[in-house]
Amino acid sequence: MSHSAKLCHIHSQSASSCDGISFLRISIVLFRGLFLAFIVRLFILEGRLTTPDTAFGDSTISEKLLDEIDPENIRHHLKWITSRTHMVESKGDQLVVDYIKDSWNKSGLTDIKVVSYDALLSFPDSNDPNRIYIVDERNNTLFSTQLFETILRPEENKSGVFPPYNSFSASGNPRGELVYVNYGRIEDFLFINKTINLTGKICIAKYGKIFRGDKAWLGQQFGCAGMILYTDPKDYAMSDATDVYPNSWWLPGSGVQRGSLEIGGDHLTPGYPATESAYRIPLDQAHLLHIPVQPIGYDDARQLLKGLRGEEVPDDWRGGFNITYRFGPGVVQGDRFVQMHISTKTKRGLVRNVMGFIKGNIEPDRYVILGNHHDSWVF
To answer: What are the distances in angstroms from CA 253 to CA 245, 312, 357?
Structure first.
């Protein structure tokens, strides 16, 4: 029973009072509906609420915009921007910011400005690069992953290349038995957790299917001491040896997919822009991973996976290597372990946004936002 009906029941001396209240409420609802219909009809007649086919403005605007695009212009800009490394906060990134600003000035954009944010960033130690070992029980190193990718074209031999890493990984040196967890999805972890206790294990997962950061967070939740991510040739090369970059577009064996493990803005100012005056939570309260994570190429991954012992994996877990894919844990040749050495650490630094405007004549207070990141993991 509604509040008004209860009042009617308690206070009315006759049914006519209740009938009067109900009639008034119905009349108000009908009036609102008729008024709304009138407004909608008015906008339709004025041409302000129409289908795309009859909307006001130039129906050929899309064609005109496309006709203005010059492929050679795009080629020129891309060649210039990708000719140097331009990691965030680096000298190369500042050059790219200036280049974008100057190009937009020449193109006629208005109110061009560079807005800086003081955000939490993540970098490896270039003097102590991340690496992964296979060690024996006497701590002898039997295998070590590559510190940098192989230089495949002369123009790639430039300074400023950061060694492969996943940003916002924890630093550390965990050691444990290796376990293969397919793509590192929740269904993969639940499947393997039925027979293998993952606590303290080093897990290795293929890139793909889900966001890399979700793989790492799931690994942490299931007790993994560390996580290795690799690009399987079945997904990124179509084979494990032939016809790869620079001869084609497929990923070479030393190529490593860098990338962040976190999304959603600055970790110290959650939900707010990282301006200079913003309140920041303490670093130990930030939502960051507690386990080390490292990406590797498939040449290195093959060395880690080929000696795994344990049961064979299902068909849909197999990748592109000519090996028997097994779950683990551990390797066939005696007591051997995987040792991670991860130097990645966080620091605050400047992130620069270049902003330019094309002001419209109709509803200039409303925005269509088009954006892209201009910094780069390498080139």
So the answer is: 9, 24, 43
What is the token pair recorded at 240? 């494990």
pLDDT in tens, the chain (379 residues): 444 444 344 343 444 444 444 545 555 555 565 555 555 555 555 444 444 554 566 778 888 888 888 999 999 999 999 999 999 999 999 999 999 999 999 988 989 999 999 999 999 998 999 999 999 888 899 999 999 999 998 988 988 899 999 999 999 999 999 999 999 999 999 999 999 999 999 999 999 999 999 999 999 999 999 999 999 999 998 755 568 998 888 999 999 999 999 988 899 999 999 998 999 999 999 999 999 999 999 999 999 999 898 999 999 999 999 999 999 997 656 678 999 999 999 999 999 999 999 888 888 889 989 998 899 999 9
Whether residue 176 sits in one domain with residue 27: no
Domain boundary among 35, 50, 65: 50
Q: Which residue has the tokens 């500042």?
A: 94
Longest dimension (CA), the chain: 97
| CATH code of the domain covering residue 250 | 3.50.30.30
Encoded tokens for 214 = 């979700």
CA–CA separation, 80 and 59 (whole Å): 35
| 371 within some domain | no
Tokens of 314: 């299902």
Q: How far is CA 318 from CA 205, 293, 356, in A?
A: 12, 22, 48
Range of the domain at 45: 19-50
Tokens standing for 1? Answer: 């029973």
Listed in sequence order, the residues at least 6 apart from 312 whose beta carbon sits closer than 8 Å to its beta carbon are 324, 325, 326, 327
272, 278 Cβ separation under 8 angstroms? yes
User: What end-to-end distance do the CA atoms of the chain give, in Å?
Assistant: 68
Count of domains observed in the chain: 2
**Which residues on neighbouring strands pair with residue 353, listed in sequence order?**
115
